[in-house]
Amino acid sequence: MDRFNLLPAEITSDILTRLPAESVLDCKLVSETWKNVIQHRSFSKLHTIRLLNHSATTYSTDFCKLSFLAFTDVGRLYYFDYIENHEIPNIDRIMRINLTSPFKYNVFVGSFNGLICLRGREERFCIYNPITKEYVILPQPKINFRQCKDRCIGFGYLPLTNEYKVVLMYKVPNFVEVMVYTLGNGSGWRNLGKFKIELGYAYAFEVHGIFANGDPHWIHRRRTIFLVFDLAGEKFRKHLARPPLTRGCSYSDFGVLGGFLFCAHRRYDSVSQKFICSKFWLYKQKNGNCEWSQNFTAICTAPLAFTKSGGIFSYSSSYLNSLKRLLGSNEQFVQIFSHKNSLVSLKDLGEEGSEIMQQSVKLEKRKRCD
């Protein structure tokens, strides 16, 4: 160990930034030298860059790791690692995080680079890093909530400017008003003004947006058209229509696969007595323009991500990818998001009011095979 302490700080930092976030936190306990290296402001930035670029770590060379955060119907928060190696895919570990939410009622809005966005009543928002336990409660937007009943929420990240933004959109007579909070810029909630949304029917979009192709998307409750907000330019894009329903399908599901917006047509399966996804469309660039293309057909319940072998990782009730039951008989999944543990610091982003949340984490090492 003494020999490692003799290494230049630059070399030590280069080695440690290649480790998973959880291992880095363990390394802080090894020696005072390592602790000082890890606590340097440049360390978390380099670690995040390597995380986003999928640099060489034990988790990216020999097999593929998919990570998720899940909320259950009893208010618990879980973290899952799914590893697909050359032999048998399995759930490598399950980590239950006893989240002491600052809100009595909260909804999971989204996750980017290890930061998650929680929404409470009357549009109170909390940005939280479950690994470092650092969090910040955003100021409440100054709007009359009694008059603004129809609201839409979005959380997104702009890699070119390293900006995290929370978008709040609400209906006022004949217009939609938009407010944006950019983490760390010191401007608080910025009111972008009123926008005229040209639609042939009432504004009735799902509350929580889907962040895909670099922008938040809100699907209309009739599930026929998307409202798209340009997060970088802070303006609305042209509305996006969903692909046409295929014969035998009565319902469409939407989400993100591989960073792209997807539309999956659902049909009723008489064997499982459930609605399952069958034909998948991806909205991606083709011949210089973005358009829907029917990429593949797969049978699954609620899709989450592509696997290394080209399959679909999905979930249903208390199961992940049809593996053995992961939750107790009285507990079910409510929301699941792709998530990467990171060391992103809210204070380094400019949020000086960040604090450390008191919580406990229970790590369980389990093998769940198909």
Characterise this structure.
The chain has 370 residues and is mainly beta. It has helices at residues 2-5, 9-16, 21-27, 32-39, 41-52, 346-349; strands at residues 64-72, 77-84, 90-98, 107-112, 115-119, 125-128, 134-137, 151-158, 163-172, 175-182, 189-195, 210-212, 215-219, 225-230, 235-236, 240-241, 251-257, 260-269, 274-286, 289-300, 302-306, 312-316, 319-320, 333-338, 355-356, 360-369. A hairpin with a 5-residue loop joins strand 21 (302-306) and strand 22. Helix 2 (9-16) crosses helix 4 (32-39).
Which features characterize this protein?
370 residues, 12% helix, 26 strands, 5-stranded antiparallel β-sheet, 45% strand, mainly beta
Quickly describe the structure.
With 370 residues, the protein is mainly β. It has six helices and 26 strands.
Secondary structural class? mainly beta
CA distance, first residue to last residue: 41 Å
**What is the mean predicted local confidence, pLDDT?**
78
Largest sheet: number of strands, sense, barrel closure: 5 strands, antiparallel
Share of residues in strands: over 45%
- Overall helicity: 10-25%
Strand order of the largest sheet: 24-1-2-3-26
Overall geometry: globular
Please count the beta strands (DSSP E, at least 2 residues each): 26
**Tally of alpha and pi helices:** 6
Low-pLDDT residue intervals, each spanning 5 or more residues:
55-63, 360-370
What gyration radius follows from the Cα positions, in whole Å? 22 Å
SSE topology:
Layout lengths: L1 H4 L3 H8 L4 H7 L4 H8 L1 H12 L11 E9 L4 E8 L5 E9 L8 E6 L2 E5 L5 E4 L5 E4 L13 E8 L4 E10 L2 E8 L6 E7 L14 E3 L2 E5 L5 E6 L4 E2 L3 E2 L9 E7 L2 E10 L4 E13 L2 E12 L1 E5 L5 E5 L2 E2 L12 E6 L7 H4 L5 E2 L3 E10 L1
Antiparallel strand pairs: 1-2, 1-24, 2-3, 3-26, 4-5, 5-6, 6-7, 7-25, 8-9, 9-10, 10-11, 12-13, 13-14, 14-15, 14-16, 17-18, 18-19, 19-20, 21-22, 22-23
